[in-house]
Write a structure and sequence with these properties.
The complex is a heterotrimer.
Chain A (H helix, E strand, L loop, with lengths): L1 H14 L4 H4 L2 H13 L5 H12 L8 E11 L9 H17 L5 H4 L5 H13 L30 H19 L18 H5 L13 E6 L5 E2 L2 E3 L6 H13 L3 E6 L5 E12 L6 E17 L12 E5 L10 H7 L7
Parallel strand pairs in A: 1-7
Antiparallel strand pairs in A: 1-2, 1-4, 2-3, 2-8, 5-7, 6-7
Helix pairs in contact in A: 3-4
Chain B lengths: L5 H8 L8 H7 L4 H4 L5 H5 L14 H6 L2 H7 L6 H4 L6 E2 L28 H17 L56 E9 L2 H4 L3 H14 L4 E4 L15 E9 H15 L9 E2 L8 E6 L1 H4 L3 H4 L13 E7 L4 H11 L3 E2 L5
Parallel strand pairs in B: 5-8
Antiparallel strand pairs in B: 2-4, 2-7, 3-4, 6-7
Chain C lengths: L1 H12 L16 H5 L11 E2 L9 E6 L5 E6 L5 E3 L15 H5 L7 H9 L6 H6 L2 H19 L2 H15 L10
Parallel strand pairs in C: 2-4
Antiparallel strand pairs in C: 2-3
The chains are: A alpha+beta, B alpha+beta, C mainly alpha.
InterPro entries (chain C): Ribosomal_bL31m, Ribosomal_bL31m_N
Organism (chain C): Penicillium angulare
Protein name (chain C): Ribosomal protein bL31m N-terminal domain-containing protein
């Protein structure tokens, strides 16, 4: 089936006349024209064909409103959750490594007879291996072949391994400290699931830490979109994008605009062309070009937005289709990161 | 090899009736792409696949809790001889024609097997999720459809045939030097610069003057910070003041980090070690070999700031900890791209940025 | 071993005109990777050396802002807590006013001195430098300290944390392992 459609598409593309003349934006067409002038000595025929387009540029018949959009994203803050297969694989490799790496040189790190050394000996007897995160396993014993985890074992879980590390550090600190009255407490890592996740607060930037979040705003008509506004005259795309960001989401954000080129676009065709009341020009729809941007600090604030936006949300890629139309999502999905 | 062989004999030995005849079936069930295409759907093909992975299979609690491989092996009356269940790789590779072949290095039973990776390094995840796509956006150069770049002069110059001796001469190098720089292709999705490997190199000239202890300490220190066994190198230069003789004195150690080790080292270097250096301005902006590899050096007292050396600093003989050069090899073809990548990963640069 | 290397060398230095009878060894060994000699015709057995790798542990690194990650290291310490890292060094946070104003006072000696003898000696200079927000922070801190003298420790923590939320959004909690 796939080959059939591809073949048909290819045939259609062959039958169709070259789209170069009307499918290219104005600046690009001018660039082509200029380039060809520069290399006019080599090919005279091409110069002749492009001369009219560059000298007297006609108004292209379908007129679109050009918008500058911003894909404002918060990059992932923490490492991703491992798949069960990855956990099992890493754990198995660690146990293989027990057997294949050089043995740990204990006396290079612990001097004989010190409290640390005594503590180390005690722990080695208990867990039979220097490593703390592979459970009780002796790679040099008779039953070293039994290196696979049984069902429901927690040893391959990263949370469990980190807990073991912290427990080990605590017990060492308690065993070697002078005063036995005070118990050493080593702070655990912060939880990977934040309060915003538990509450389902989609406005918080602290949600879904291992994922990239994107800012979506709700227009006054009630539909969700990435922030965008029409480009004004004498304004580059990047300037327009920066203006869009400050106008829609407020200035209380530290952002970084990535590069000067758009990362994606969205085309919206009106059912019937709208006529502008002032100039009388017909508008066939909207074309939005999205610039990529990263948020470093701050939070969106819609109170000062010029477009009277209703609401905003920070959403991951999987959540976006619930809010935007299917057609809109098909345009923007390829510029959103997988993670 | 021998285990796979019988299948052929099996097929030959079976009676004719059991052997499926490929030809008649193909004729009867002849299918055309045109009449099959609309009826075929993805869901039909997926029916053959198992829905659950083996990792999520539910096993009854009693079966799981009662399973004890050690106890089971002990109940056996006679233990299997070791050779029956454990394959030992031959110690020598005796050439491709020898009947006794060692297994591939990726086989855990091979003598060359290196286990790993053991984790998904943080720096690698940052690169994949954030840095790579940003570099792609930053380095995009717009060429409109139909654009033809102006022809470039050839990289190697031809000889003008002013002299008869120019016949059949190899082409000349570029003007102003013989160095032929790497070609920098436009950065697309498939050649985003990434870190290829990291080399730690430490030249200990005292190893030639004094004793080999310097070299041992240098090797252990570099191994401790990099998790990689070092290689040693003999001197190539002859320096009378240092009493160096080429080919006689072993004076340098090098560790090459790749893959997981490299990313762990990079994360540790950027997040823990570099911020602790006193009055360190960053990596010099002019550093680099103009083909995308950036080098900077660490002094001996800066080497001692690595957590691995700090933890047992007393065990290293005083003042024998070496300095080292750290070379970050990237797949970028120009220093500009390499610096973009490294500064995105968190390495600061200072001074005049030389491209 | 020595004989083995010399053989390899002689094999490499042989003139290339001798036609090779055997195809060159297909199996890439660690040995042939590490040496630069090209073995065009090896008829001896090659020792398959086990690669030597030092023992590595998993270590939990906790940065100064509480974010943490694990990495593989040769040091046997289970938890490494850093005091100075990318989260609180000026080179990585060039715009952070908090880091700009702070003196190199890791041990807290300067702070202890000020708490005891006041800071009249440098009253003029920092007042000119400090912007309004920093001043506000200082006042808040002093207030918090005064309040803390009367109240419990928990209340002090509450004050500080609530102060941070009023002033600016809290720094994004990062935790990586």
């Amino acid at each position: 089936m796939a080959t059939g459609t591809n073949g048909a598409r290819r045939a259609v593309s062959l039958l169709r006349p070259s789209r170069l003349d009307f499918g290219v934006c104005r600046s690009c067409q001018e660039t082509i024209g200029r380039r060809n002038y520069a290399s006019a000595a080599t090919s005279e025929s091409t110069t002749a064909s492009t001369t009219p387009s560059s000298s007297a540029f006609p108004v292209v018949s379908p007129v679109y409103t050009i918008n500058a959009g911003v894909v404002l994203s918060r990059p992932p803050q923490i490492t991703r959750d491992l798949e069960p297969f990855e956990k099992a694989y890493f754990f198995y490799q660690k146990r293989l490594n027990e057997r294949l790496a050089l043995p740990f040189t204990k006396y290079f790190y612990f001097k004989r007879g010190t409290p640390l050394d005594e503590d180390w000996k005690k722990k080695i007897q208990a867990r039979q291996t220097p490593a703390r995160d592979i459970g009780k396993y002796n790679a040099y014993a008779q039953d070293a072949w039994n290196d696979e985890l049984l069902l429901g074992a927690k040893e391959s879980d990263p949370e469990y391994q980190v807990e073991q590390l912290v427990l080990d550090a605590e017990s060492t600190a308690n065993a070697t400290s002078q005063d036995t009255s005070k118990k050493e407490e080593i702070p655990r890592p912060h939880p990977r699931v934040t309060e915003a996740d538990k509450k389902g607060d989609q406005k918080s930037l602290n949600r879904l830490l291992p994922r990239t979040l994107y800012l979506l705003v709700q227009s006054k008509d009630g539909y969700w979109k990435l922030p965008s506004t029409p480009i004004q005259t004498q304004e580059t795309l990047r300037e327009a994008a920066e203006r869009t960001l400050s106008q829609t989401a407020g200035v209380n954000m530290n952002t970084w605009m990535v590069g000067f080129h758009p990362a994606g676009h969205h085309v919206y065709n009106n059912r019937k062309p709208h006529a502008d009341k002032v100039t009388g020009a017909e508008s066939h729809g909207e074309k939005t070009f999205f610039m990529k941007s990263r948020i470093m600090a701050g939070q969106a604030d819609l109170s000062a937005s010029a477009e009277k936006l209703k609401d905003f949300k920070w959403l991951s890629k999987e959540e976006i289709p619930q809010f935007v139309t299917q057609q809109y999502y098909s345009y923007i999905k390829n510029m959103l990161a997988d993670r | 090899m021998a285990a796979r062989e019988p299948s052929r004999y099996l097929a030959r030995g079976l009676p004719r009736t059991f052997v499926p005849s490929a030809r008649s079936q193909a004729f009867l069930n002849r299918r055309n792409v045109s009449d099959e295409a609309p009826a075929r759907r993805l869901s039909d093909q997926l029916e053959d696949l198992e829905t659950a992975s083996s990792l999520t299979t539910s096993v009854s609690e009693s079966a799981a809790s009662s399973f004890d491989p050690i106890a089971r092996s002990k109940t056996r009356k006679t233990q299997l001889p070791r050779g029956r269940y454990q394959f030992r790789s031959p110690k020598y590779d005796r050439g491709p024609l020898h009947p006794h072949q060692p297994p591939a290095p990726s086989d855990p039973s091979s003598r060359l097997f290196v286990p790993g990776p053991f984790a998904l390094p943080r720096a690698e995840q940052t690169y994949n999720s954030t840095v790579a796509s940003d570099i792609l956006t930053l380095c995009y150069v717009h060429t409109p459809p139909g654009f033809k770049p102006p022809p470039k002069a050839p990289r190697l110059r031809e000889w003008d045939d002013s002299s008869p001796y120019h016949k059949n001469r190899p082409l000349r190098g570029p003007r102003g030097g013989d160095v032929l720089r790497l070609l920098r292709k436009p950065i697309k999705f498939n050649n985003i610069p990434k870190i290829e490997r990291i080399t730690l190199h430490s030249y200990v000239k005292e190893a030639a003057q004094d004793n080999s202890g310097w070299l041992h300490v240098a090797g252990i220190a570099v191994q401790a910070i990099s998790n990689v066994r070092v290689e040693t190198f003999k001197s190539k230069a002859s320096v009378a003041n240092w009493s160096l003789v080429p080919g006689r004195d072993t004076v340098a150690v090098k560790a090459e980090l790749q893959g997981e080790n490299m990313y762990h080292f990079l994360g540790k270097l950027i997040d823990v070690v570099l911020p602790r250096l006193k009055d360190w301005p960053g990596v010099k902006g002019s550093s680099g070999d103009s083909s995308g590899n950036i080098t900077f050096g660490l002094e001996p007292e800066q080497m001692a700031l690595f957590p691995e050396i700090e933890v047992n600093y007393d065990m290293y003989p005083p003042k024998m900890i070496p300095g080292c050069h750290i070379t970050l090899h990237t797949t970028a073809k120009a220093d500009k791209d390499a610096r973009l990548l490294l500064s995105a990963m968190g390495i600061p640069f200072y001074g005049k940025i030389v491209q | 071993m020595s004989m083995h290397t010399t053989l390899r060398r002689t094999a490499a230095t042989l003139p290339s005109s001798t036609s090779s009878i055997l195809p060159s060894s297909q199996i890439i060994t660690a040995q042939s990777k590490s040496t630069s000699f090209v073995c065009s015709q090896c008829r001896h057995a090659t020792l398959l050396r086990r690669p030597k790798r030092p023992y590595t542990f998993t270590q939990l690194v906790t940065l100064s802002d509480g974010s943490s990650f694990t990495h593989r290291t040769s040091s046997p310490t289970p938890v490494y807590r850093s005091t100075r890292d990318t989260r609180n060094s000026l080179l990585w946070n060039p715009t952070s006013s908090k880091l700009m104003n702070v003196e190199d006072d890791e041990a807290g000696r300067l702070a202890a001195f000020r708490a005891r003898f006041g800071r009249s000696f440098d009253a003029n200079a920092p007042a000119a430098e400090e912007d309004a927000t920093a001043k506000k922070e200082k006042e808040e801190e002093i207030k918090a300290q005064q309040a803390a003298e009367q109240q419990e420790e928990d209340n002090l923590l509450d004050l500080i944390s609530s102060f941070g939320q009023q002033e600016a959004p809290p720094p994004e909690k990062k935790k990586k392992w």
